[in-house]
Write a structure and sequence with these properties.
By secondary structure, the chain is of the alpha/beta class. The chain contains seven helices and twelve strands.
Amino acid sequence: MINFESNKSREVILNSIRDHLAASARHDAVFKDTHSHHAPLFEANGSVLTNKTIASLINVFRENLEAVDGNCIVATGELEVVQALRTIISSLHETPLRARRIALSDAPILQHLASQIRREVEEIEIAPDAAQLFAYDLGITTVQGAIAETGTLVLNSALERHRLVSLLPPVHIAIVDSSQICLTLGEALTALRVGDGELSPTITFVTGPSRTADIELTLAIGVHGPQRLYVIINSGPKLGT
């Protein structure tokens, strides 16, 4: 027996996906000559490069992230990134979310940053196992990309142990380098292709805090993931350099 209603719904969804991919491709063509997600923001001597395209991408990403209830802080270098971490943690101390126990992904730069905020917390652990992660208040990761047009983070777990750290604690802080921000999904997928051009099978896309309306059609936050998402964008020299 053929379910015509189901087939019709499926075709509507597929057409919508095709339309959005086509729109993404058009944006990619427009920005191909004006933006490179690997373009450096600073000269070797530390002087700032004039790059309106990157500044624009940061603003677009921030607006779209905040539109889905994410929080965004733009920092210019390591000192401001650390200060942003301290500010977020301090504000969480005044809430039931606490932020006393912190889980880090295994990105080396996070261990360096965490060493500067140890006095503000009770415990910091690198990539705890799944059973332990439920007891942590906050997860901190880096990312492998960010999509400006949707305010989306791109996490490739083949390169960093951050999938569970970003999903299980009630608060997730993601640290993004401004050079990682792409305009579209198409740009992001291109950047993720490595070696033979194949995409990793372990890519996670995160757009704002977890939410669902499946429960009596009432919007609920934090059911399948973090209740709060903070993104710190570093627009200064790349961290660790």
